[in-house]
Amino acid sequence: MATKADFALSGRIEQGGLASGIVPTGTVALGLDGKPVPFATDRHFLIGFDRDAPATALLVATMADGSRHQLALSILPHAWKIESLPTLPRGTTPTPEFLARRKIELDRIVTARATDTGAQGWRQALAWPATGRISGVFGSQRIYAGEPGAFHAGVDVARPTGTPVAAPADGVIILAADAPFSLEGNLLMIDHGMGLNSAFLHLSRIDVRRGDIVRRGQIVGAIGMTGRATGPHLHWAMKWRDARIDPAPLAGPMP
């Protein structure tokens, strides 16, 4: 059995966390729980863990001779902020028209996230795209009359409409909405490479186009309240492949 040192693994091995590492010398393939994980020519890689990730995962590096290095990971749980609203229903039933529109929007998001641009921002420390009061935390969830609602899949920063939004790391624009999405409003997405991407919701404007290369700290848009929002704020969401990641600990303390 391999050890953590064999993979030079570091980072947040916890629900909503992101970790980085270096595969053992001679690795030709890497997998996490049976799913392939890319790694760079210098042997560096990323792995992420969803908000509801199970307690364990298995990291496997396969060598050229067929031998394998296996590392069992213990994923730390989180006590997410849960709010019970026993007298409120979850919400209204969506109309067929909304569902048809929503499918088109979700297909665009899935296609964007599947885009591999070769960006290298995943190697950088993340910066806050905007600073201000944190009005919503990752992983929080409401329970409506015993029925769970969707958990909050990002971090919210409350600032006035028009406040600039900057790229948290280098990347390539993979989606820049030409019209507001039903829930996300003006949606912008950046691929940082290695399966890691950022999404910025509810923007009042978008200053870049799909395919643009952006640098850490570059202004890409402005805070707004388009889509389903009750006030102006930035909703910053991150994903590593299919795993929802908490951006706040990666960006560090709010400046």
Automatic annotation (TrEMBL):
It holds the Pfam family Peptidase_M23. SUPFAM superfamilies: Duplicated hybrid motif. Residues 151-247 form the M23ase beta-sheet core domain. This is M23 family metallopeptidase. Signal peptide: none annotated. InterPro entries: Cell_wall_metabolism_enzyme (IPR050570), Dup_hybrid_motif (IPR011055), M23ase_b-sheet_dom (IPR016047). GO terms for molecular function: metalloendopeptidase activity. PANTHER family: M23 FAMILY METALLOPEPTIDASE (PTHR21666:SF285), PEPTIDASE-RELATED (PTHR21666).
